[in-house]
Every structure is written in structure tokens, then in C-alpha cells.
Write a structure and sequence with these properties.
mainly alpha, 2 domains
């Protein structure tokens, strides 16, 4: 079982992606995306670099008008599943990358669906094992995260960073590996 103080400490002290995380979740970066209600090509590439740099070559194959129109539609989609599905139209964007894009766009509404965080949710009994490459998986994943973040009184982003760091371990197993 997670508790608020441990989640906040693990997210703050052990999450390795602080530089890009700070950039992508800055008021300036998110403010521009929010005002536009779409991503520009360079925004997409920054998010891809943060989530999975190995996909950068693929993402560069998109053209700017497609990135803008697809992300505009996704950001206005009526459900998380539709938003994720729309974003997978972009080259180099699968389901998990799509959730990263949505998270940067609105971290209070979305969270990143990630193999490491999923392993933690499974080990805590908060989620059933599902195919992370199926956009229909995102709804239950997101609801599990929203429920746990609400129970703990932390943001979705803080919870996500903690779940990612734990990578399937309990907080005790992570913080005290000698036990």
C-alpha cells in the first residue's frame, strides 16, 4: 500500500527525468500548447525525446500540418480512448506515446501509461494485466491512477513518477533492497 509522504518522496528524490520533465511541464511550454490547443512539430519531438528517444527518428517523418491537425482533434476528443486512438495516426506514436502526449497537454486529466508504472499497479493489485498497446486499456489504467492519486491526495504526475521509479516493487522493496 502506498502512502502520500512516500509517494511524494520517491517522485521527488528518485525520478531521473527531471530536466525534460521540468521543461515539458513548465508554464511556458504547456501554456503555448494550451493556447494553441495543438502541438507544433518541435513540441511533438520534445515529448517523444522525453518518453522514448528511440522513437525520435520515426516521429520526425510526420509533417507539421498533420501533427497540428491530429493533435487538435485528439485534444478535443470526447474520451481518453478516442484521444489516444487519434494520436496513433502519427508516425512513431503508439498507445503509450499517445498517453505521454496527452499528459503533457493536460497532466490533471491524463497520465502516462508505461510498462514500469503498470508493473507497479499490478503488484499493488490496483489493475488487472492488460495489453498496453491497445487504446481500450487506457481508460481502466487512467481510472486506477486517478483513484489512487485521489486516495493519496497527490497529483497524477506525482503518482506516475513514483510508479515509474518503483517498477513493480513495493516502496519497502525499493527503499530497502537489503531486506
Amino acid at each position: 500500500m502506498l502512502d502520500k509522504a512516500t509517494v511524494e518522496m520517491i517522485a521527488q528524490d528518485h525520478y531521473p527525468g527531471k530536466y525534460l520533465d521540468t521543461l515539458l511541464f513548465s508554464d511556458e511550454f504547456r501554456g503555448r500548447i494550451g493556447r494553441n490547443a495543438y502541438l507544433e512539430m518541435h513540441d511533438l519531438l520534445e515529448i517523444v525525446r522525453w518518453k522514448a528517444q528511440r522513437a525520435l527518428g520515426w516521429a520526425k517523418r510526420n509533417d507539421a500540418p498533420t501533427v497540428e491537425s491530429v493533435t487538435k482533434w485528439a485534444f478535443a476528443a470526447p474520451s481518453p480512448c478516442f484521444a489516444v486512438h487519434a494520436l496513433t495516426y502519427l508516425i512513431g506514436v503508439g498507445v503509450r506515446m499517445a498517453t505521454a502526449i496527452l499528459t503533457v497537454y493536460d497532466p490533471e486529466k491524463y497520465t502516462v501509461m508505461d510498462v514500469r508504472a503498470n508493473a507497479t499497479l499490478l503488484s499493488l493489485g490496483l489493475l488487472k494485466d492488460r495489453d498496453l498497446d491497445d487504446c481500450r486499456t487506457y481508460g481502466p489504467y487512467l481510472e486506477a491512477c486517478k483513484g489512487e492519486a485521489g486516495r493519496l491526495g497527490v497529483s497524477l504526475r506525482t503518482l506516475d513518477k513514483c510508479l515509474w521509479v518503483l517498477n513493480g516493487k513495493t516502496p519497502d522493496e525499493f527503499l530497502h533492497p537489503e531486506l
